[in-house]
């Protein structure tokens, strides 16, 4: 089996890479900074430098990975960008990076993997979004809106690719205990409800891919909390989510 993971140099992506390597699969990973890779002593691992917001970049490294291989079985897009903008305090550069990585990057990964799989009549494409994208309300953060867009883009590709034997799985996780999350929160995760450890998240995601699930939201408590919130009037949901975001940032 051949697996390629965009955003696979750290966090969930790298954990999934190690999972598939343990099964004896050939795995390719890419990211903007290869120095993030903890270790690279795996025989079947190939690492590439690439930026998903650049179509030529992601297409080129995927072609390089597949050069001596018979097809692409699994493509996973774990690439993402986050910047806090609860009170509208966000720079143009931060906003641009989120839009380019989370939206343009998602489309680019779908296009690159779709083209690699189109003559196979099979294959699996997965994108990691966020549970925050499940909710729709006016004053949600830019990050939340981009992740909602990711979910909707995946739905469109799922419908388009189904006749060609290519499955699409969307992953909408809650808080996962990664090094990045700890860095963003000064190593204090006390205000992150229903925190999932990386090993559990990897198991849930890999199982969803194997079963060709359409949409997986985890952990279960977070899923039901978000679905309950989605039933509230928009004005009330706006107020609750804004206060929650301010509370989480208030040390």
Automatic annotation (TrEMBL):
Domain of life: Bacteria
GO cellular component: lipid droplet
Keyword Oxidoreductase assigned: yes
Stored Pfam families: adh_short
UniProt entry keywords in alphabetical sequence: Oxidoreductase
Biological processes annotated in GO: phosphatidic acid biosynthetic process; triglyceride catabolic process
MF term (GO), any: acylglycerone-phosphate reductase (NADP+) activity
CDD domains per the UniProt record, alphabetical: SDR_c
Family from the record: Belongs to the short-chain dehydrogenases/reductases (SDR) family.
Name of protein: NADP-dependent 3-hydroxy acid dehydrogenase YdfG
């Amino acid at each position: 089996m051949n697996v390629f993971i965009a955003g696979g140099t750290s966090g969930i992506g790298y954990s999934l890479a190690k999972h598939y390597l343990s099964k004896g699969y050939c795995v390719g990973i890419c990211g903007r900074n290869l120095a993030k890779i903890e270790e690279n002593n795996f025989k079947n691992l190939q690492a590439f430098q690439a930026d998903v917001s650049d179509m030529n970049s992601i297409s080129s490294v995927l072609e390089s990975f597949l050069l001596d291989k018979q097809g692409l079985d699994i493509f996973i897009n774990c690439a993402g960008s986050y910047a806090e903008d609860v009170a509208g305090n966000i720079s143009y550069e931060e906003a641009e990076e989120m839009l380019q990585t989370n939206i343009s990057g998602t489309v680019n990964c779908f296009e690159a993997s779709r083209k690699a799989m189109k003559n196979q009549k099979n294959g699996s494409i997965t994108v990691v979004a966020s549970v925050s994208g499940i909710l729709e309300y006016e004053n949600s953060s830019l990050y939340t809106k981009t992740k909602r867009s990711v979910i909707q883009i995946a739905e469109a590709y799922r419908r388009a690719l189904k006749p060609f034997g290519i499955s699409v799985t969307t992953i909408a996780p809650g808080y996962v205990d990664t090094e990045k999350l700890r860095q963003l929160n000064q190593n204090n995760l006390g205000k992150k409800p229903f925190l999932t450890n990386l090993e559990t998240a990897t198991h849930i995601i890999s199982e969803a891919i194997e079963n060709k699930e359409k949409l997986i939201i985890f952990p279960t408590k977070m899923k039901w909390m978000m679905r309950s919130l989605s039933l509230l009037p928009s004005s009330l949901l706006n107020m609750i989510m804004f206060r929650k975001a301010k509370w989480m940032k208030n040390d």
